[in-house]
Amino acid sequence: MWILPLVGYAGAIVGFCFLTLAIASGLYYLSELVEEHTVIAKRLLRRLIYSVIGLQTALWLVDGFPFWSTMLGIASHVVYLGNLRRFPFVKLSDPLFLVACVLVLLDHYVWFKHFSHSQTRAFQRSSYYDDVDVPSFTMIASYFGLCVWLVPFALFVSLSASDNVLPTMGTEPVRGVDGKNRHQGMVKAIVDHIRNAIGDLAGARNLDRP
Q1: Could you tell me which residues come within 8 angstroms of residue 144 by beta carbon, excluding any fewer than 6 positions away?
Q2: How far is CA 129 from the centre of its chain?
Q3: Total structural domains in the chain?
Q4: Are strands 174-175 and 181-182 parallel, antiparallel or unpaired?
Q5: Which of the residue ranges 32-46, 103-117, 144-158 would you say has the lowest mean pLDDT?
Q6: Which of 23, 128, 155, 199 has the maximal Cβ count within 10 Å?
Q7: First vs last Cα of the chain: how many Å apart?
Q8: Is residue 183 one of the residues assigned to a domain?
Q9: Strand (E) positions, the chain?
Q10: Is residue 155 a part of any domain in this protein?
Q11: Is residue 59 scored above 70 in pLDDT?
Q12: Which of 49, 39, 31 has its CA nearest to residue 157?
């Protein structure tokens, strides 16, 4: 077969493009909601952080999760909570914001290593009939989604960057219908920047045509 594999590659590329557009549209819509309901978003984020900390504590006490890895996860969420002090605005050079970015990656690495070792021990059992309490892929993915990436992802969608922080994403302040300045979410600013860049590129190509 020669043509069918090419059709498969083309379909995969088109599907990936549509998936990317769908995710970008969803993030854009969420950013719009946060702009309109800042107080509610801050309250929900604060409760979400407390819930994740409680869940991690329960996993340590009941399911025997490693102590230091759990403490790292709790400390990470405490740092995330500190980023809410000027919600929804964030300064990308703020040390607390930079520490939060590092902790996201470190927390992911620590838990990935922990679950990898759990899977390795399960495969190294002496007998196939030995009862090994190893988490399934669904459990591991759910833990990463809820306890590792949910709060950082929600913060990324909710936080806004001022014009002085992101000068390439618009030089004019965003104004509402009443003429007052409004904050603009980082996700929305990034999407607008990419859309404007594509528009400028398309316009430049049209000008080059005879």
Answers
A1: 108, 111, 112
A2: 40
A3: 1
A4: antiparallel
A5: 32-46
A6: 155
A7: 42
A8: no
A9: 89-90, 160-161, 174-175, 181-182
A10: yes
A11: yes
A12: 31
